[in-house]
Amino acid sequence: MTRLADLRKSYELDELDEDHAHAAPFEQFRNWLQAAIDAGVPEPNAMTLATVGADGRPSTRIVLIKGFDERGFVWYTNYDSRKGRELAAHPFAALQFHWVDLERVVRIEGKVEKATAEESDAYYASRPLDSRLGAWASPQSQVIASRAVLVANAAKASLQHGLNPPRPPHWGGYRLVPDRFEFWQGRRSRLHDRLSYRLQPDGQWLRERLAP
Fold first, then answer.
1. What pLDDT score does 9 carry?
2. Active-site residue among 190, 194, 207, 209?
3. DSSP string for residues in 48-101
4. Which residues face 23 on adjacent strands?
5. For residues 116 and 136, is the Cβ–Cβ distance under 8 A?
6. Pick from 30, 43, 85, 108: CA 20 to 30 A from residue 61's CA?
């Protein structure tokens, strides 16, 4: 096996400076996300979600962003899952996007709230039928005996709800309302560019450069 300590990469694709970064973090994120989409980065909407449980232990998983605006960043999941239980105990989280091909990372922190029922209903209705039935079939994060349990649950949900299953009461959206962003651009010699945006009491964003 290759020695992990010998793995090296020189970051040379781009730079991030105050003159070219947007003053508003949401617009800076929009620009970078669109660049990742345009570049054909695999799953540009995939993000790491970090939460903390009632016992103080952190956990992470990959989820898909399904929308964002100046109110925050939205994803959908099972409210009874581990992340749902952790958010109920500590309604704060961190997100991270890593667009490897562009040598870019975005980190976002803030408070988490549930999306409205109307938002969750609308997104649920837009999903493929199999995905809507899957939300009924999977007791997410719980121990199950085998995959056969999921298959049986999906068949039962199909028989019960047909082609128009309603949104399960345990399934819906979350919105992270940011108070901190960081945009990271890889640079040569490990002298990376890092721009931080912190929400101030007056509602304005303070942009600062961080040492790499």
1. 86
2. 190
3. EEEEE-TTS-EEEEEEE--EEETTEEEEEEETTSHHHHHHHH--EEEEEEEEGG
4. none
5. no
6. 30
| Rounded Cα gap, residues 108 and 102, in angstroms | 18
Does the pTM exceed 0.90?
A: yes
Which pLDDT score, from 0 to 100, does residue 112 have? 98
Which residue numbers in the chain have pLDDT < 50? Answer: none
Whole-number pLDDT of residue 7: 87
190 is catalytic: yes
Q: Rounded distance, CA 130 to CA 138, Å? A: 12
A 10 A CB-CB count for 190 gives 9
- Given this model, what pLDDT does residue 4 score? 87
Q: Which secondary-structure segment (H or E) carries 126?
A: helix 117-126
Tell me the HSE value of 167 on the side-chain side, using a 13 A CA sphere: 21
Are residues 93 and 87 in contact, defined by beta-carbon separation less than 8 angstroms?
yes
Contact 138, 153 (CB under 8 A): yes
Q: Which amino acid is at 129?
A: L
**Coarse DSSP helix, strand, coil percentages of the chain, rounded to the nearest 5 percent:** 30, 35, 35
The DSSP secondary-structure symbol of 210 reads: -
Residue type, 54: A
Domains and CATH numbers, the chain: 11-125+169-209 (2.30.110.10)
The CA-based angle 50-61-156, given to 5 degrees, is 130
